[in-house]
Design goal:
Elements (H helix, E strand, L loop, with lengths): L2 H23 L5 H10 L2 H8 L8 H25 L1
């Protein structure tokens, strides 16, 4: 499982837990109501997942990762030349 997938799953999990606790905190003890609220909370992360321009999960995240890798490799080469 790659880092992007782990981040997405963590986002879904946080949303589920927060929504469930919030509904329970209002005094609603119906398991059905708590589960519906928790499932509805996944709409936000789901929208982020399908948005190709989202900086965390979308297409931009892939492009940014590639550019950061290039910059890191260039920086390592620069550092190696300075040491030599």
């Amino acid at each position: 499982m790659n880092n992007k997938m782990k981040a997405a799953l963590a986002s879904y999990t946080r949303s589920l837990i927060v929504a469930g606790v919030a509904v329970y905190g209002t005094g609603e003890t119906s398991i059905k109501a708590i589960l519906i609220a928790a499932l509805a909370a996944t709409a936000g992360p789901a929208i982020r997942a399908i948005n190709v321009k989202d900086p965390a999960f979308g297409f931009i995240a892939d492009a940014v990762s590639v550019e950061l890798d290039k910059l890191l490799k260039a920086d390592k080469k620069k550092s190696a030349k300075k040491k030599a």
